[in-house]
Protein backbone atom coordinates (compact mmCIF):
# COMPACT_ATOMS: atom_id res chain seq x y z
CA UNK A 1 0.00 0.00 0.00
CA UNK A 2 1.23 3.46 -0.91
CA UNK A 3 0.91 5.68 2.17
CA UNK A 4 0.65 9.02 0.35
CA UNK A 5 -2.09 7.90 -1.99
CA UNK A 6 -3.96 6.22 0.88
CA UNK A 7 -3.73 9.48 2.85
CA UNK A 8 -5.15 11.45 -0.09
CA UNK A 9 -7.98 8.92 -0.46
CA UNK A 10 -8.83 9.21 3.25
CA UNK A 11 -8.67 13.02 3.13
CA UNK A 12 -11.04 13.16 0.14
CA UNK A 13 -13.47 10.88 2.01
CA UNK A 14 -13.26 13.03 5.16
CA UNK A 15 -13.89 16.25 3.23
CA UNK A 16 -16.87 14.56 1.52
CA UNK A 17 -18.18 13.53 4.93
CA UNK A 18 -17.89 17.11 6.25
CA UNK A 19 -19.61 18.44 3.12
CA UNK A 20 -22.36 15.83 3.49
CA UNK A 21 -23.17 17.11 7.00
CA UNK A 22 -23.50 20.62 5.59
CA UNK A 23 -25.59 19.41 2.63
CA UNK A 24 -28.00 17.53 4.88
CA UNK A 25 -28.36 20.52 7.18
CA UNK A 26 -28.86 23.08 4.40
CA UNK A 27 -31.50 20.82 2.83
CA UNK A 28 -33.53 21.03 6.06
CA UNK A 29 -33.43 24.84 6.21
CA UNK A 30 -35.90 27.33 4.75
CA UNK A 31 -35.12 30.56 2.90
CA UNK A 32 -35.59 32.44 6.18
CA UNK A 33 -33.52 29.96 8.19
CA UNK A 34 -30.38 30.49 6.11
CA UNK A 35 -30.27 34.19 7.08
CA UNK A 36 -31.20 33.81 10.77
CA UNK A 37 -28.77 35.21 13.35
CA UNK A 38 -28.95 35.06 17.14
CA UNK A 39 -27.40 38.50 17.58
CA UNK A 40 -25.20 41.06 15.81
CA UNK A 41 -22.02 39.12 16.63
CA UNK A 42 -23.39 35.87 15.18
CA UNK A 43 -23.06 34.58 11.65
CA UNK A 44 -25.96 33.16 9.68
CA UNK A 45 -25.69 29.91 7.75
CA UNK A 46 -25.53 32.05 4.60
CA UNK A 47 -22.57 34.02 5.93
CA UNK A 48 -20.74 30.87 7.03
CA UNK A 49 -21.29 29.36 3.57
CA UNK A 50 -19.97 32.53 1.87
CA UNK A 51 -16.91 32.48 4.11
CA UNK A 52 -16.23 28.78 3.53
CA UNK A 53 -16.61 29.12 -0.23
CA UNK A 54 -14.45 32.24 -0.35
CA UNK A 55 -11.78 30.44 1.62
CA UNK A 56 -11.97 27.34 -0.59
CA UNK A 57 -11.78 29.29 -3.84
CA UNK A 58 -8.79 31.25 -2.54
CA UNK A 59 -6.93 28.35 -0.93
CA UNK A 60 -7.48 25.63 -3.53
CA UNK A 61 -7.17 27.62 -6.79
CA UNK A 62 -3.62 27.28 -8.15
CA UNK A 63 -2.91 25.40 -4.92
CA UNK A 64 0.67 24.38 -5.62
CA UNK A 65 1.75 27.53 -7.46
CA UNK A 66 0.33 30.63 -5.76
CA UNK A 67 -0.29 31.95 -2.25
CA UNK A 68 -3.54 30.59 -0.79
CA UNK A 69 -4.68 34.10 0.11
CA UNK A 70 -5.49 35.47 -3.34
CA UNK A 71 -5.50 39.21 -4.05
CA UNK A 72 -9.03 38.96 -5.50
CA UNK A 73 -10.49 37.58 -2.26
CA UNK A 74 -12.47 40.06 -0.17
CA UNK A 75 -12.69 38.18 3.14
CA UNK A 76 -14.53 40.99 4.97
CA UNK A 77 -17.28 40.94 2.34
CA UNK A 78 -17.86 37.25 3.07
CA UNK A 79 -19.34 38.28 6.41
CA UNK A 80 -22.15 40.38 4.92
CA UNK A 81 -25.53 38.64 5.27
CA UNK A 82 -26.69 39.34 1.71
CA UNK A 83 -27.36 36.02 0.00
CA UNK A 84 -30.75 36.44 -1.64
CA UNK A 85 -31.98 32.84 -1.86
CA UNK A 86 -31.30 29.27 -0.87
CA UNK A 87 -30.57 28.53 -4.53
CA UNK A 88 -27.81 31.17 -4.53
CA UNK A 89 -26.47 29.78 -1.25
CA UNK A 90 -26.23 26.27 -2.73
CA UNK A 91 -24.46 27.57 -5.85
CA UNK A 92 -21.88 29.39 -3.69
CA UNK A 93 -21.47 26.30 -1.47
CA UNK A 94 -20.94 23.97 -4.44
CA UNK A 95 -18.46 26.32 -6.15
CA UNK A 96 -16.04 26.15 -3.23
CA UNK A 97 -16.34 22.40 -2.72
CA UNK A 98 -15.91 21.70 -6.44
CA UNK A 99 -12.63 23.61 -6.52
CA UNK A 100 -11.42 21.80 -3.40
CA UNK A 101 -12.29 18.32 -4.75
CA UNK A 102 -10.85 19.03 -8.20
CA UNK A 103 -7.58 20.15 -6.63
CA UNK A 104 -7.43 17.17 -4.28
CA UNK A 105 -8.01 14.78 -7.17
CA UNK A 106 -5.02 16.30 -8.99
CA UNK A 107 -2.65 15.82 -6.05
CA UNK A 108 -0.37 12.81 -5.78
CA UNK A 109 1.95 11.40 -3.17
CA UNK A 110 4.84 13.37 -4.71
CA UNK A 111 3.05 16.62 -3.76
CA UNK A 112 2.46 15.98 -0.07
CA UNK A 113 5.76 17.33 1.25
CA UNK A 114 5.99 20.25 -1.15
CA UNK A 115 5.79 23.71 0.38
CA UNK A 116 2.92 26.02 -0.40
CA UNK A 117 2.12 29.44 1.04
CA UNK A 118 -0.87 30.86 2.86
CA UNK A 119 -0.58 34.57 3.66
CA UNK A 120 3.15 34.28 2.86
CA UNK A 121 3.62 31.58 5.52
CA UNK A 122 5.13 28.28 4.32
CA UNK A 123 3.21 25.03 4.90
CA UNK A 124 3.72 21.53 3.61
CA UNK A 125 0.82 20.34 1.49
CA UNK A 126 -0.08 17.87 4.27
CA UNK A 127 -0.16 20.69 6.82
CA UNK A 128 -2.26 22.89 4.52
CA UNK A 129 -4.75 20.05 3.96
CA UNK A 130 -5.03 19.39 7.70
CA UNK A 131 -5.39 23.11 8.42
CA UNK A 132 -8.29 23.40 5.98
CA UNK A 133 -9.95 20.21 7.24
CA UNK A 134 -10.03 21.60 10.78
CA UNK A 135 -11.30 24.98 9.54
CA UNK A 136 -14.09 23.50 7.42
CA UNK A 137 -15.19 21.00 10.06
CA UNK A 138 -15.36 23.83 12.60
CA UNK A 139 -17.64 25.94 10.40
CA UNK A 140 -19.80 23.06 9.18
CA UNK A 141 -20.28 22.19 12.87
CA UNK A 142 -21.61 25.73 13.34
CA UNK A 143 -24.01 25.24 10.42
CA UNK A 144 -25.26 21.97 11.92
CA UNK A 145 -25.66 23.56 15.36
CA UNK A 146 -27.68 26.46 13.95
CA UNK A 147 -29.81 24.03 11.96
CA UNK A 148 -30.57 21.91 15.02
CA UNK A 149 -31.56 24.99 17.01
CA UNK A 150 -33.84 26.30 14.28
CA UNK A 151 -35.54 23.01 13.40
CA UNK A 152 -35.94 21.82 17.01
CA UNK A 153 -38.26 18.79 17.00
CA UNK A 154 -38.39 18.79 13.19
CA UNK A 155 -34.63 18.20 12.98
CA UNK A 156 -33.66 15.03 11.10
CA UNK A 157 -30.59 13.62 12.83
CA UNK A 158 -27.39 13.43 10.79
CA UNK A 159 -25.83 10.78 12.98
CA UNK A 160 -27.01 8.33 15.62
CA UNK A 161 -30.25 9.71 17.10
CA UNK A 162 -30.42 10.16 20.86
CA UNK A 163 -31.31 6.93 22.61
CA UNK A 164 -30.50 4.79 19.55
CA UNK A 165 -26.82 3.96 20.21
CA UNK A 166 -27.40 0.27 20.97
CA UNK A 167 -29.59 -0.22 17.90
CA UNK A 168 -26.98 1.44 15.72
CA UNK A 169 -24.15 -0.66 17.15
CA UNK A 170 -26.12 -3.85 16.48
CA UNK A 171 -26.89 -2.68 12.94
CA UNK A 172 -23.21 -1.98 12.24
CA UNK A 173 -22.06 -5.29 13.70
CA UNK A 174 -24.60 -7.16 11.61
CA UNK A 175 -23.67 -5.20 8.50
CA UNK A 176 -19.97 -5.99 8.88
CA UNK A 177 -20.58 -9.66 9.64
CA UNK A 178 -22.42 -10.00 6.33
CA UNK A 179 -19.37 -8.85 4.36
TrEMBL record:
What Gene3D superfamilies has UniProt attached to this entry?
dinb family like domain (1.20.120.450)
Question: Which superkingdom is the protein from?
Answer: Bacteria
Cited Pfam families:
DUF1572
Q: What is this protein called?
A: Hypothetical conserved protein
From the broadest rank down, the organism's phylogenetic lineage runs: Bacteria, Bacillati, Bacillota, Bacilli, Bacillales
